[in-house]
């Protein structure tokens, strides 16, 4: 493929990244903002050129040693649910924007310590960025089959690097507040992570099923190599120990690499996204790992005896078979790995460089005298220049120091160097006694061991093969500490971390830290206790004026944002806006506002410049913290009790409202019953008085009055019986006669007495029988009563020429009966209440239908007694009552509500 064609492809690919970043920033839809998979995919920035190309070379030449860079993180990531959740909370409440801020803030917010951490990150990451540029350059020339050019101005790879630098500078500095979420960049990184996995899968299937006849074919042929067995076993204690230390190196790196800290912590939008990441990201790494072995050993089989770089088998294999598409796909996958690492690393390093080196050690005085617009422009320009300079510096490093070095070795050395931050990093969140002096001395000692044991021989040798004088003597001194069963890199990592941790621990327990260190130690270790009241837990005593601090804030935030921030603060703590003096809460609040723009250390220096702080002894700090902790615990208990009381109050209010409703229903019920009883009694009395007063009444009229007395007496008896019947249902005094019956016949028996009433109203009656078997176990007398209650209710509310339909079916061994009637809907809020014994709807027609309101209550009790359910729902042009009864299995063993099981037979 020609250089021009490939360069054009690269331009289109970078344009795609620009487009994705632009759309994500512009639309800010839920797809981009609150998507846990975007977050999880962005974490795959861990998979760089080293994992994409270097691990294949390691698998081909060193066997299983490629696995630790995947296995280490997979072992550590599940602990993120605890570790990263704490770190996210700490970072959020302190407006932390970088790894340097996070560690240095814990140890007293020291400017010098943040500068040291920044330098360590530069030493570790700049060569790592150079590694990515090396991979881009070499693969570009490999795909285009052009020779490497010593002239950087004619090398196409140079222009690719410049484009990446421009992209990073533009999108990486859109927000002057470094703690802001960079939605565009993260979305582009997530896309790259997806593509590099997708392309490696395509290559894997190409090698396994096109080049070879399946995985077993590769294994069978590769096993014939003499070194195959040795390379794919641990080779005893020596191999196992090296493998374990390499896992420890990569497991440490996944937590404290600046780019990982940025994507996992600074860019975290919701803590719950971590729950997705702890399974999704390991799965991503496992899928990546699956294809390394077949590609590596497939490459060895194809290029056996040829002088090719095994790190680039992934490009050489499809190129060997003339498959340009897959060759370009793999190149783009590798480019994605490199670009994502370069972009995020350059952004994070530029933030640290500006906030922890350039601003605090050179420009703070200038910032104090300029306005918000000028300061914002200066900060942005510093970061843009830093990003561009870092990438160009890494390019120069590649050209002069790692041109002939393997991808794997450069990556491991970067991991070992950055690993020196581990004792201070993990000590920050788990150990209160850790001190600034212990952390700094331990870190410097660990770096010295790495420098003389790894960095000098690795990079100096690549530039000058001769090492003489003092450097040679110091390098040779390490032979005294040589561990025979460990390789050079695991050995240096072991000694450096051992010395680093030992000095950190010994000095920390021997030397007391200052009060500020102990203050932040409590805030970090007990973040869950202080997260709601972190400003209250910040200890500061002295003299400060709101107006002085406000002037500083306005120089960075502007007048409007400062006023808005002050209003929020005053509302939060119920402070009068006219208050002149500032307390510790306002000091901490102000430092947080500035921290995102200029870093925590610089923010502290600026605020200190306009305040006068009194010295506080460590004993006082501990007493204040103890009181604060007790107050927070007490507040928490009071809050919990308040919430419990509120809940109890709500429950009582609801219960009271329910009782009031029930009381109204009872009154309505009693009124209805009194009315129903009074009507027949009045009729009987009237007929009786007429008969008693007039002896000459004709016989046929006398007979009519006597029949009226009998009819009204029957009606009176029916009402009283309903009341007594419901009372017996409530107390379980009704005997059930459960036996096998034909449900169709039972329905007909219930329907027959009502047919003439249905015909009088010209109601259309229909039945839908979907049953295959008509025999079910139930109490037939109660079922007849149930049917008549429901049908009677339907008859009452169905208009003339309406419809009543009964539908019988069987579902999951249950009898399902649906009785539908046209007419007015039941109000939604009444659907659950219509089966209450006192219920009569507030929304009935003007002419209230007759009845005591007991029919549906009795129906519900009958159904429940037989192990079934009943419900009402509005459907279409009317209402449907659905009755569900079990076929009868085990029904005698059940004790439903409202019936005494001993009364059954």
In short:
By secondary structure, the chain is an alpha+beta fold. It is built from 36 helices and 9 strands.
Structure commentary:
68% of the residues lie in helices and 6% in strands. The protein contains 36 helices and nine strands. The longest helix is centred in the C-terminal third of the chain and has 76 residues, at 618-693. The model is unreliable at 844-851 and 889-905 (pLDDT under 50).
Give the overall pLDDT as a whole number. Answer: 81
Strand residue content? 5-15%
- What is the helical fraction, as a range of percent? 55-70%
Q: Stretches where pLDDT falls below 50 for ≥5 residues?
A: 844-851, 889-905
Whole-angstrom Rg:
41 Å
The largest beta-sheet arranges its strands as 4-6-7-9-8
For the secondary structure, the number of strands is 9
Mind summarizing the main beta sheet? 5 strands, mixed
- CA distance, first residue to last residue: 91 Å
Query: Structural class given helices, strands, pairing?
Result: alpha+beta
Shape: elongated
Q: Given the structure, what is the number of helices? A: 36
């Amino acid at each position: 493929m020609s250089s021009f064609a490939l360069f054009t492809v690269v331009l289109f690919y970078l344009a795609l990244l620009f487009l994705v970043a632009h759309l994500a920033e512009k639309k800010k839809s839920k797809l981009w903002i609150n998507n846990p998979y975007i977050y999880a995919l962005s974490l795959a920035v861990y998979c760089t050129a080293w994992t994409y190309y270097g691990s294949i070379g390691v698998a081909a030449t060193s066997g299983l040693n490629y696995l630790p860079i995947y296995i280490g993180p997979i072992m550590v990531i599940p602990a993120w649910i605890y570790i990263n959740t704490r770190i996210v909370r700490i970072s959020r409440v302190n407006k932390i924007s970088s790894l340097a801020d996070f560690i240095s803030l814990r140890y007293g917010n020291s400017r010098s310590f943040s500068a040291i951490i920044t330098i360590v990150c530069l030493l570790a990451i700049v060569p790592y960025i150079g590694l990515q540029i090396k991979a881009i350059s070499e693969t570009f020339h490999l795909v285009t089959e052009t020779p490497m050019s010593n002239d950087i101005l004619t090398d196409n790879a140079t222009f690719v690097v410049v484009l990446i630098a421009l992209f990073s500078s533009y999108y990486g500095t859109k927000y002057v507040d470094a703690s802001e979420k960079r939605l565009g960049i993260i979305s582009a990184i997530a896309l790259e992570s997806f593509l590099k996995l997708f392309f490696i899968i395509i290559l894997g299937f190409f090698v396994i099923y096109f080049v070879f006849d399946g995985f077993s074919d590769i294994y069978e042929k590769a096993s014939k190599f003499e070194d195959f067995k040795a390379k794919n076993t641990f080779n005893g204690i020596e191999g196992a120990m090296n493998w374990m230390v390499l896992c420890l190196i990569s497991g440490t790196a996944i937590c404290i690499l600046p780019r990982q800290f940025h994507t996992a912590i600074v860019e975290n939008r919701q803590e719950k996204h971590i729950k997705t990441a702890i399974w999704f990201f390991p799965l991503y790494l496992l899928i990546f790992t699956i294809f390394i072995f077949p590609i590596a050993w497939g490459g060895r089989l194809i290029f056996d005896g040829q002088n090719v770089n095994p790190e680039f088998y992934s490009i050489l294999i499809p190129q060997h078979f003339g498959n340009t598409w897959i060759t370009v796909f793999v190149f783009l996958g590798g480019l994605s790995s490199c670009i994502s690492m370069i972009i995020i690393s350059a952004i994070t390093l530029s933030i640290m460089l500006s906030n922890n080196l350039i601003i605090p050690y050179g420009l703070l005085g200038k910032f104090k005298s300029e306005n918000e617009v000028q300061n914002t422009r200066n900060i942005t320009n510093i970061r843009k220049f830093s990003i561009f300079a870092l990438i160009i510096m890494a390019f120069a490093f590649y050209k002069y120091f790692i041109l002939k070095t393997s991808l794997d070795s450069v990556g491991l050395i970067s991991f070992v160097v950055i690993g020196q931050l581990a004792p201070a990093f993990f000590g920050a969140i788990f150990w209160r006694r850790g001190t600034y002096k212990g952390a700094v001395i331990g870190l410097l000692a660990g770096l010295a061991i790495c420098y003389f044991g790894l960095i000098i021989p690795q990079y100096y040798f690549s530039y000058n093969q001769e090492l003489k004088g003092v450097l040679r003597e110091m390098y040779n001194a390490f032979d005294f500490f040589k561990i025979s069963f460990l390789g050079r890199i695991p050995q240096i990592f072991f000694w450096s971390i051992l010395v680093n941790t030992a000095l950190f621990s010994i000095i920390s327990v021997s030397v007391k830290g200052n009060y500020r260190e102990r203050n932040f130690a409590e805030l970090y270790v007990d973040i869950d206790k202080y997260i709601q009241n972190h400003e209250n837990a910040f200890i500061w005593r002295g003299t400060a004026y709101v107006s002085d601090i406000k002037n500083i804030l306005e120089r960075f935030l502007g007048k409007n944002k400062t006023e808005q921030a002050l209003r929020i603060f005053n509302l939060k703590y119920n402070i009068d806006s006219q208050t002149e003096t500032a307390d510790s809460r306002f000091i901490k609040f102000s430092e947080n506002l500035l921290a995102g723009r200029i870093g925590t250390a610089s923010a502290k220096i600026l605020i200190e410049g306009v305040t006068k702080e009194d010295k506080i002894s460590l004993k006082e700090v501990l007493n204040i913290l103890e009181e604060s902790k007790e107050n927070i615990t007490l507040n928490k208990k009071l809050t919990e009790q308040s919430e419990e009381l509120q809940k109890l109050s709500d429950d009582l209010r609801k219960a009271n409202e329910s009782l009031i409703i029930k009381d109204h229903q009872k009154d309505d019920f009693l009124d209805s019953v009194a009315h129903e009883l009074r009507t027949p009694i009045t009729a009987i009395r009237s007929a009786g008085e007429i008969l008693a007063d007039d002896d000459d009444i004709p016989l046929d009229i006398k007979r009519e009055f006597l029949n009226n007395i009998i009819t009204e007496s029957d009606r009176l008896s029916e009402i009283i019986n309903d009341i007594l019947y419901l009372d017996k249902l409530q107390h379980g005094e009704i005997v059930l006669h459960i036996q096998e019956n034909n449900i169709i016949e039972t329905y007909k028996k219930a329907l027959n007495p009502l047919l003439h009433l249905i015909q009088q109203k010209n109601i259309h009656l229909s039945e839908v029988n979907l049953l295959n078997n008509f025999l079910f176990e139930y109490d037939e007398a109660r079922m007849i009563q149930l049917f008549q209650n429901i049908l009677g209710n339907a008859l009452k509310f169905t208009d003339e020429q309406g419809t009543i339909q009964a539908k019988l079916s069987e579902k999951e061994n249950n009898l399902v009966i649906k009785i539908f009637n046209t007419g007015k809907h039941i109000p939604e809020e009444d659907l659950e209440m219509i089966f209450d014994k006192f219920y009569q709807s507030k929304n009935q027609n003007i002419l209230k239908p007759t009845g005591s309101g007991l029919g549906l209550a009795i129906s519900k009790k009958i159904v429940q007694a037989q192990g079934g359910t009943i419900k009402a729902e509005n459907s279409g042009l009317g209402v449907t009552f659905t009755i569900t009864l079990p076929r009868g299995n085990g029904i005698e063993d059940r004790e439903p509500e409202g019936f005494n099981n001993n009364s059954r037979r």
